[in-house]
Amino acid sequence: MKASTLFTFAAAAGLASAQSLSTDCTNSLKGLLTSPDAACLNPSALLSFFVGNAKSVPDTVNNWLTGLCSTGFCSNETLATIVTNITTGCASDFNVAGGVPETVTQIVQEVYPTARSIACLKDVPTNQLCVSETLTSLETLVGKLSFSDLNVATAFGDFQKIVVGAQNLACTGCTKAAFRLASQLSLVTEFPQAQQQAALQIDAICGANFIG
Fold first, then answer.
1. pLDDT digits (tens, 9 = 90+) for 19-75
2. Which helix (H) or strand (E) holds 2?
3. Does residue 104 sit within a domain?
4. How far is it, in rounded angstroms, from Cα 199 to Cα 193?
5. Spatial distance between the Cα atoms of 26 and 50, rounded to a whole number of angstroms
6. In total, how many domains does the chain have?
7. How many CB atoms lie within 10 A of CB 109?
8. By residue range, what is the domain housing residue 80?
9. Which of 184, 63, 169 has its CA nearest to residue 117?
């Protein structure tokens, strides 16, 4: 499954799991919606999720990423502030009562530029964001996606459908671009065997040397 697809599922799953967070943590996340520090992440576009609006996943994500990708990158200082604010409010949820390890902030600062670049990839022929396009394609396999019914049970129930349609989801130009961007991360290059295995799995679905 392509990197932008995995990014999409991770983001959606994270939003869904937010429904079970503590009150302090939820309030901390809600605070980001209007925080100037988080403007570069365009969090206000996710307001419909927090207020319980059952807007579809593709529409919400596309609206969020369209705004995010039209703004500048977050600075390292901004990212550090965001990490501190979230982990302070969510200390009990993340089990970081002793404070945020410096390595966590460093990892976020390293991964963020690549994650943003992957999230903002566009399919040139259609001029659509790859993540949004993937979600729309996913809907053709499993039916309409909405945050109101996004949970582990439905995810496992749809897994077989996703496997059957994996080729249509994975074998695109977005896959190659996302994989190449992710491969540049030091966190990834430190595990060359895992990287090679991922490439082989994609090639198994899309054909030999698809990644190249």
1. 567 888 888 888 888 888 899 999 888 776 655 555 678 888 999 999 999 999 999
2. none
3. yes
4. 10
5. 9
6. 1
7. 17
8. 3-206
9. 184
Beta strands in 10-55 (DSSP E): none
Is 13 inside a domain boundary?
yes
* H or E stretch at 102: helix 102-119
Amino acid occupying residue 69: C
Residues 6+ apart with CB under 8 A from 46: 15, 33, 60, 64
Over residues 106-134, the pLDDT tens digits come to 999 999 999 999 999 999 899 999 999 98
Task: Judge whether 67 and 33 are in contact, CB under 8 Å.
Answer: no
Residue 211, in any domain of the structure: no
Close Cβ partners of 27 (under 8 Å, ≥ 6 residues apart): 89
Kindly report the pTM of this predicted structure. Answer: 0.76
- Evaluate whether residue 212 is within a structural domain: no
